[in-house]
Amino acid sequence: MPELTIVVPCYNEVTVIAKTLSNIMDALAGRSLEAEVLVVDDCSTDNTAGVVAAYQNAHPDAMVKLHRNPVNRGSGYSYAAGAAFGTGRWCILVPGDNDLPADALSAIFNRLGSAEILLPYPRLEDFRERPLLRRVVSRAYNALICFAGGIRVRYVHSPPVYPREFIVSSKISPSGFGYFAELLCLAVRTGLTVAEFPVPALYGQQEGTSAFRLANLRSVAASIARIFMRRVLPRSHG
């Protein structure tokens, strides 16, 4: 049984998915860590699945598996589905768009098992290099989520490592833009131990101005409301 399940949700990532998988394999190289990589293709309209299949054929020793959603369901659903398909003790999401370089993944893997929740955050010098608007929106979203959830973490956009069974047993619906924040708040308030640490060149799954685009505002607002209600009415909201 693998120790780590790596879920890679992807949608129309034909140009970068092979690099994403290569980054994962580079970060795993030389370790005794046994890991499985579950690519969840969210009904891509391009040849993303074909590129993954070609990667599997070219790297038969890598534990790379492919699952295809019959309809497009979003990254939250794909992440939850990957966790359910997996068998590892721990689980992490790695976006299929090549957002996480190998050195960032390696820094995360180095901490595996040091706490029940691993929460990486970007180094200050890396964060300062981002556009001002992106930094402002990132901090505003972080503050909103922490206030609503009654938690204190540095960076809610990070790709956390959770116990896989926690994700599977969660009653949170894996839909909407704020699913990942809802899951994080629930995990922290459940009492799971947390380790926060800086990693190089970290980019967030929900960071940036996209969090406040018109198409996502309703979803974000609904998620923040649910997070707050779980805080004040935990028995009625799971």
Describe this entry's structure for a reader.
It is a single chain. With 238 residues, the chain is α/β, with parallel strands linked by helices. It folds into two domains: 1-110, Alpha-Beta Complex (Spore Coat Polysaccharide Biosynthesis Protein SpsA, Chain A), CATH 3.90.550.10; 114-158 and 166-192 and 200-238, no CATH class. It has helices at 17-28, 48-58, 75-85, 102-110, 124-127, 132-149, 164-169, 179-190, 214-232, 234-237, and strands spanning 4-10, 35-41, 64-68, 90-93, 117-122, 161-163, 194-199. The strands form two sheets. The chain has a five-stranded mixed beta sheet, sandwiched between helices. Helix 1 (17-28) links the parallel strand 1 and strand 2 (35-41). The longest helix is centred in the last third of the chain and has 19 residues, at 214-232.
Key traits:
alpha/beta, Spore Coat Polysaccharide Biosynthesis Protein SpsA, Chain A, 45% helix
Q: State mean pLDDT (0 to 100 scale).
A: 89
| Rg over C-alpha atoms, rounded to the nearest angstrom | 17 Å
The overall number of domains is 2
Mind summarizing the main beta sheet?
5 strands, mixed
Structural class category: alpha/beta
Low-confidence stretches: 206-212
DSSP E strands, number: 7
Shape: globular
In short:
This protein is of the alpha/beta class. The protein is built from 10 helices and 7 strands.
Any chance you could write out the topology, listing elements then pairs?
Layout: E1 4-10, H1 17-28, E2 35-41, H2 48-58, E3 64-68, H3 75-85, E4 90-93, H4 102-110, E5 117-122, H5 124-127, H6 132-149, E6 161-163, H7 164-169, H8 179-190, E7 194-199, H9 214-232, H10 234-237
Parallel strand pairs: 1-2, 1-4, 2-3, 5-7
Antiparallel strand pairs: 4-6
